[in-house]
Amino acid sequence: MEELISVIVPVYGAERYLEACVRRIMHQTYRNLEIILVEDCSPDQSGIICDRLAKEDARITVIHRKTNGGISAARNSGIAIAKGNYIGFSDCDDSMHKKNFEIMHQLLIENQADIVVADYLEIEDDETCREDKEIDFTKIKIEVYGGVECMNHLLTKRNIKTILPWNKLYKRSVFDAGNRFPEGINGEDDFCIPHLLCAASKVIYTDVSLYYWRKRPTSYSRSFRLSRTTYLYVLEEREIFLKDKISKELKHRFLVHYMEILWDYYYLVKINYPEEKERYQGYRRKFQKKYEENKNFFHISKKKRLKWDVFRKMLFLSDVWYRIDQIKRKTIRKIKGIDNYYN
Question: How far apart, in whole angstroms, are the C-alpha atoms of residue 197 and residue 175?
Answer without folding.
Answer: 10
